[in-house]
Amino acid sequence: MTETTADELDDRVRGRNWTVRLDPVGRGSTAVRVSCSRPNCAQQRLASAAAGRQAAVAHLKAHLKAAAAPRPQAFCACKAESCRGHLGPDHRQTRAEPWRCGGAVVLAVVADREGRWWQVVECCSRCAAATPGAKVVSTAPAVPRPPVGPQSRTDRAAVTTAGLPQFSAPPPAASGAAAGPGRTPRPRQAPVRHGRATGKIAQRVVPQGLQPVVLRDELIELGDLFRAYQQRTEPDLSLLADLQDRKARAFSTWAEVTGDENLRLEARRAEQAAATARSQDLNRTGRGGDADGPAVARLLTTPTQWGHARSVLAHVADHSPLPGPEARLLVLMLTLRTAHSGTGNLVGQDITSLGLSDPHHLLDELTGCGWLRLPGTADELLASRPENAVLTTVPSLLPRDDGSGPFTFGKKARAKLSGWAQKVTSDKKLRKAKATPATRLLALTLATRTTASGRLGPDGQGIPLHSLATCVPVDPGELRHLVGQLTTADWLAEATLTDTRLVGRQSERVLPLTCPLT
Predict the structure, then answer these.
(1) Residue 393 host element (H or E)
(2) DSSP code per residue over 329-365
């Protein structure tokens, strides 16, 4: 095997290396800060270490997805960082024998066992294998062999080593005429291709005879653009989303022309990829195309989660067993706690923190009508603490025989949605303003009906009052009072209530709690 020493690698381009870190914000706070060593990555501040780890991993995955493939000509980034492979046994001095890198160039992820940092290194596969806990996520394509002519073996070896660098020996030459003493096999002639240009996209060859010609040209061009994007050193998620949109349209047309259902499925996947890229761009810049908007790190980070939040509000509006805003808010919070399996643990503070005028009476009514089941009494639930949480059941949310239920999100998403709703209803300024349960329910509803910059309603045109009334069952006169409370609590920066709609915008301080309309 032909191997390359670490010293011989110094003339090559240095491998990439970046780190995503999770650090505490300060003493006396559970908040954490997520930072990335890549340029132009803004810091994120999360309420807890668990939320910070999820955000850090999501940020790392976004980088890996958008990063260019490992470069065959790169030398190990870990060499510059003094990894154990390039150091001696005592980890203090360079090896007496040079460490020999080997194998293909890879992108590897190394994570701290305690979940405090995640590092990506571009290195050789031998260094990745020597690093404890390293996980290879992508491998560089094989370096093409230089053309072999009628030279001697020594000459061919010189050509190989003088061309693009290789960590391991090149593959054997293609079989040809038997070589006699002092002779080398005759190289195969490359086939001469005639006809129109061809290309590849998404591992598919674009047929030469594909009609219309404009579709064939679009597919070939898109394949070239995607390959060029993979060579970028920094991601451009807005550009990637536009490319995925073009791919979705082109593959949809291709499917119509050929009748191939697989192409139609590929078009749908491209649409989903475009939405994901835009979501990541929105989370990274916080503006979603609004250049004048503030940068926002949202508690719920994806359009899918925003849609789930709206689906729970709509479900509660249609299936609440009791009238009135107080019952609606309690039903909403209980639904979020039990949405995944129909059961969930609650403590008294979960109920008393909602500001209900008579929580005991409401719990009795919910259990009396059969909507809620408790293993004991309402008093026992209200007196419970975290060490003796009460398992509650909502029969209508229990999975059916086929395992399905009214919601499509899983256990982790349920916890995120429940935490989001708790964060809204327990907002410090709402509590200091002694906001009523109806006001908190309105705050939850408005958080799901804003633009990325915080304007109320689709395209910032406001929310029709009849639409608001489905989620917040109050009359127009009381609605004006609720809007006033939200303005006083700095939840709404602007608010105008007309006879038909509520127009305005959320204050910047609550933008992290919003679920933008997409």
Answers:
(1) strand 390-393
(2) HHHHHHHHHHTTTSEEEE-HHHHHTT--S-HHHHHHH
Q: At what angle do helices 237-258 and 49-66 cross, to 10 degrees?
A: 60
pTM higher than 0.85 = no
Which residues are CB-contacts of 38 (< 8 A; sequence separation ≥ 6)? 18, 63, 234
In a domain, 231, yes or no: yes
Same domain, 243 and 339: no
Q: Which of 120, 139, 158 is the last residue of a domain?
A: 139
Residues paired with residue 118 on neighbouring β-strands, in sequence order? 20, 111
How confident is the model over 464-488, as pLDDT tens digits?
998 898 889 988 888 999 999 999 9
> Are the beta carbons of 436 and 355 closer than 8 angstroms?
yes
134-153 pLDDT, tens digit per residue, is 888 888 876 555 454 444 44
Strand stretches in 186-249, DSSP E: 199-201, 204-206
Query: What's the residue count for the chain?
Result: 518
- Taking CA atoms, 428 is separated from 348, 486, 504, in Å, by 19, 12, 22
Can you say how many angstroms the Cα of residue 434 is from the centroid of all Cα atoms in its chain?
A: 36
Domain assignment present for 297:
no
Kindly state whether residues 335 and 268 are assigned to the same domain: no
3-state secondary structure of 263: helix
Q: Which residues of 344-360 are buried (b: 16+ CB within 10 A; e: fewer)?
A: bebbbebbeebbbeebe
Q: Is residue 239 part of a domain?
A: yes
Residue of 431, 426, 346, 406 lying closest to 380 (CA atoms) = 346
Looking up residue 477, the CATH number of its domain turns out to be: 1.10.10
Instruction: Tell me how far apart the alpha carbons of residues 258 and 273 are, in angstroms, rounded to a whole number.
Output: 23
Task: Read off the pLDDT band of 38 (50, 70, 90).
Answer: confident
Say yes or no: 12 and 122 in one domain: yes
Tally of CB atoms within 10 A around 214: 10
